[in-house]
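Obj.: predict assembly geometry.
Materials: sequence records (below).
Method: joint structure prediction, all chains together.
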Amino acid sequence: MKTQFDNDDLERLAPNLAGIPKQDPFRVEEGFFERFPHQVQALVANEKRSIWPSVWLLRAAFALPVVGLLIGALWFFQASPPTTDPNQVTNTESLSNEEMYLLEADELLADLAPEELPEHAAASEAPALDADELVAYYELTSADITDLIENL
Amino acid sequence: MSELSDQELLALFRKEETRHYAFNLMVRQYQQRLYSFVRRMVTDPDETKDVLQNVFIKAWNGLDRFREDAQLYSWLYRIAHNESISHVKRMRRGLFVSQDAVIERLTTTLDSSEHFSGDAIQRKLQRAVMKLPEKQRAVFTMKYFEQMKYEEMSNVTGTSVGALKSSFHIAVKKIEQWVVADPTI
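Observations (raw structure tokens):
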């Protein structure tokens, strides 16, 4: 069967190449092909003896990092540190007793839900006062009600 | 020593008591043809020996799974092809330099009369072949030197016949240009 690229094509396309004799110019060491089969047999015998440990080592090399990652992920998610309020004052050594009281109050208030806060509770639960009661209240507390009257 | 057929070799290999004997026969039967191909790919004799050893070790490990849907020689040739190309690629990564440096290393052997018995024109041709990219070099070597059929080359390389024909055509034109332009003569 005539191939597409036969000698005529080679002479036409690459006349210089076609003119170079095809030969194997590489020297081979004397006796190489007599020794080579024995050398390969020796390598194969060593390969067979050592294959089992290397198979298990290879499996361990893949499995251990995966197991390590799983353990690390479990530890990380189970040992998550409690969240802290960045606005909280942590150094209390320089605070006065009143400031400490207020700080403790703030810390207690921080744990409450919005609807549980005193002002919210006061606003939602505070009874409405009539005018006399309001006047009595302000007289009692000596509050300046001038602005309040002007804004009514 | 008369050559055994693929079926005979495989039958001997599959018996535990004759496995090594069959393997020895297979190596003796195919070593020279495979050596010739690998040598044209990597040129250096020591590296050729290393690559060829790897080829037969892989053959030993894979022969149980050989499906006999192709000739044993084609299967071995495919391993030799892949190993040679991998070796040249590793060489480039190891050198971490340009293709020119790789070509320089590959052609060093050609200047040594200990390893190369060809005349100046043969040296010129081999130097041009070394300039080809490794896959194209393999195609050129198989077609031009080994005179393999494209269908067989397709089994070896896993590339279509059409692509192989194009690759060889381009390789021939390149080598023609380089042989003419080579100032070493």
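Conclusions so far: The CA atoms of residues 89 and 106 of chain A lie 10 Å apart.
To do: check interface contacts against the pulldown list.
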